[in-house]
Design a protein that fits this description.
Elements (H helix, E strand, L loop, with lengths): L1 E6 L3 H12 L4 E7 L5 H8 L3 E5 L7 H11 L4 E6 L4 H9 L4 E4 L5 H11 L4 E2 L1 H10 L6 H11 L4 H8 L3 H14 L5 H11 L4
Parallel strand pairs: 1-2, 1-3, 3-4, 4-5, 5-6
Helix pairs in contact: 2-3, 4-6, 7-9, 7-10, 8-9
Length: 202
């Protein structure tokens, strides 16, 4: 039996996934959580073979949790599910040592097979996403530029960003100007759109 930990914050989706997985004779759901920050402690308690997790979770996002889980329980494989097919997410997933990356609109029967594949040490990645990630290239923004643009995307004004990051207002404005130039964007709003679609702000 393959032991599975499931992390999904939407109640109905979580219930449907558990029911779907329990139909398989060789799969057993041994843990269910609705927050990213509960993944590692729950995994250390129930010792799953595979952790299936959504990208967008409260408390801690799925990719950060996957990275932490790899450090604490390296024998547990991780399978990320998302409704957002953004190429930048796949690149982050690969950096986080994720074993599989599935879109939520993939066929239902593919989930159980994906679990078996990653448990066997193979990688399972949506091929369409691989091609998109290949085409889009690396994030051209520095870590700080990405952080500033992410805060701007959340509605923070330059003065608020400066206060939160302990930077001068001029420095924040320079970062925002640089991100617009690097992304060949028309303005800050366009830069946010480009970076969001690429998955660089996730």
């Amino acid at each position: 039996m393959l032991r599975i930990l499931l992390a999904e914050d939407m109640h109905m989706v979580r219930g449907a996934l558990v029911a779907l997985l329990q139909l398989e004779p060789d799969l057993e759901v041994v843990g269910v959580v609705d927050r990213g920050d509960l993944i590692v402690p729950t995994a250390l308690s129930c010792r799953p073979d595979v952790a299936i997790m959504d990208v967008d979770l409260p408390g801690m996002d799925g990719l950060t949790a996957a990275e932490a889980l790899h450090d604490k329980l390296p024998e547990c494989r991780t399978l990320i599910m998302t409704g957002l097919g953004r190429p930048g997410l796949l690149r982050r997933a690969m950096s986080a040592k994720v074993s599989g990356f599935l879109l939520k609109d993939s066929p239902a029967e593919g989930l159980a097979q994906a679990v078996r594949e990653v448990a066997a040490g193979r990688r399972v990645i949506n091929p369409q996403l691989v091609m998109s990630a290949w085409d889009i290239g690396e994030n051209p923004l520095s870590k700080r530029e990405t952080e500033v643009l992410r805060m701007a995307a959340q509605g923070d004004e330059p003065r608020e960003i400066a206060a939160k990051l302990h930077l001068s207002l001029g420095t924040v404005r320079n970062y925002l100007t640089t991100t617009v130039m690097k992304l060949n964007a028309r303005n800050r709003i366009d830069a946010v759109r480009i970076a969001t679609e690429a998955g660089w702000l996730s």
